[in-house]
Amino acid sequence: xxxxxxxxxxxxxxxxxxxxxxxxxxxxxxxxxxxxxxxxxxxxxxxxxxxxxxxxxxxxxxxxxxxxxxxxxxxxxxxxxxxxxxxxxxxxxxxxxxxxxxxxxxxxxxxxxxxxxxxxxxxxxxxxxxxxxxxxxxxxxxxxxxxxxxxxxxxxxxxxxxxxxxxxxxxxxxxxxxxxxxxxxxxxxxxxxxxxxxxxxxxxxxxxxxxxxxxxxxxxxxxxxxxxxxxxxxxxxxxxxxxxxxxxxxxxxxxxxxxxxxxxxxxxxxxxxxxxxxxxxxxxxxxxxxxxxxxxxxxxxxxxxxxxxxxxxxxxxxxxxxxxxxxxxxxxxxxxxxxxxxxxxxxxxxxxxxxxxxxxxxxxxxxxxxxxxxxxxxxxxxxxxxxxxxxxxxxxxxxxxxxxxxxxxxxxx
Amino acid sequence: xxxxxxxxxxxxxxxxxxxxxxxxxxxxxxxxxxxxxxxxxxxxxxxxxxxxxxxxxxxxxxxxxxxxxxxxxxxxxxxxxxxxxxxxxxxxxxxxxxxxxxxxxxxxxxxxxxxxxxxxxxxxxxxxxxxxxxxxxxxxxxxxxxxxxxxxxxxxx
Lengths: 413, 157
What we know:
The complex is a heterodimer of chains A (413) and B (157). Chain A has 413 residues and is α/β, with parallel strands linked by helices. Chain A has 14 helices and 17 strands.
């Protein structure tokens, strides 16, 4: 990344901020500085309008019914699948709509894990995984006896490729790793990790929740066998999520849930499953959230994810510069490049007290373990405070954060 | 807007910095573990009960300023009191935190009223109540207390 101030001359970020009506309000009498987009992002007017338009004029159940609205809803839903597929550089049938990344990982643990893994097989995860990429594999362990291998991290919160490779044995049958750490901001060398795994014939699932909102993702380039992310962290509604899976895997996998839409025919003796992707989409899906996700991807691509990445890099670098200039602040995570989020601590102050005082100053951050308790243990802290940035944030939001931290230090001084 | 000084009063900050009765009691007759899985507040309360009196009381663990000050002030207040009175105080404190304490009860709580400011912040009430919750579990002989799930005897507190 360039160290030059980019301020992407072509993009008017103040104007873009105004696309997000929710940001224009006060919190406890102070201008809202929303720095919790890594937990859930906000939706621009374009997405909100598309959702209203869909519900006003197109909604009915999909893939059934011969009437006009059912056809419109089906078109909107399948168009969304095409938008996602184009965005990811994959085939439409390789896009499975799920409620979020958690469901995507559970689907793979169930549909692939229960079918192809057996007792003694090893599954590799890392120390920095979100609980969503730990618990499904532990459940599989308890059920069929697979063994979890945990890749360690450095003190700076990095995964070294040597350490990753060392976790493999001839029993390794699956790898499931986070692309960008939601706690540390670490951007893992996921392409190289996929190459290493594939050189040993092992498939890889990548949890891309914190990557998808901030960078262009091409499935062929990354090389992952499975890739999951949640729409609500990238300007779309909650309930929209994506599991990309290579068709060759999806075809061989067990379905996740049984029900309508995932079948070709049902008798009381036997059911024939539908083709992919429908085999994995039992029941009426979250049609409106998925339509919203397509609108969100269109919106992000209109600005350009590369421009967004540059802008967010600029914001996080500005925040790091200001925080590093303060006394008594500990910043977790990599020294070098990171995603637009910063986990930090203030000497002798618990993160929850930080969170409460910042909130009263209008600054919304997350305080806690961020669903990464094993990582907290590795860092030797019960919790951290985390400020996360999106392209709709401004330098003024960072300044509000810094002022809020000063207020914390004054109270606890 | 809540004034942060109403919440983080000097007495709370002082107890957070230098908590009273902080450490382990060995041996003790009663103990319980209290945990808030949502924020990680984690305390052990240890008591020595002799002839129906809480003759010694201590706490160990970690958490936010509100929970630590609550534990410190609780142990200072309850130490030396009969168990019955301790259980009454637990109930009174809990009532104050959910806004159900009478003026008379509040008066009896005395300097514990510094936690009234916390009652205005729903997501922090559990921080103040956790040590009391845990003391209750210790005195009643339950294994522990959690602010969440099945062990949450005080739904909403």
